[in-house]
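Reading is simple: the token line describes the chain's fold. The lines below illustrate.

. . .
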Amino acid sequence: MNHDQGVVAVSEENNAIGHHYEELHADGTLDAWTEPPFGETRYPGEDDPDHNPICDCPGQWPLAFCLECAGCAECEQCSCNDPRLL
């Protein structure tokens, strides 16, 4: 599929849940996405100073982030034999 043909129609809907957008391309493909309301985070708790989206380690970042599997070696999320740590 090729999006080079351009957008032929755009739809936008705003409500309490967020902002929903849709773009219809000339080749028949549809791109759709939803964004949170203005001033809100994408995921609940994301603005918490201790929010860690990767693992259960305390703080904002994993204690031992593995570059190969993008998991935390400290919490045993990483299944690599010899993890390459960040």
User: Anything to note?
Assistant: The beta strands are 7-14, 19-25, 30-35.
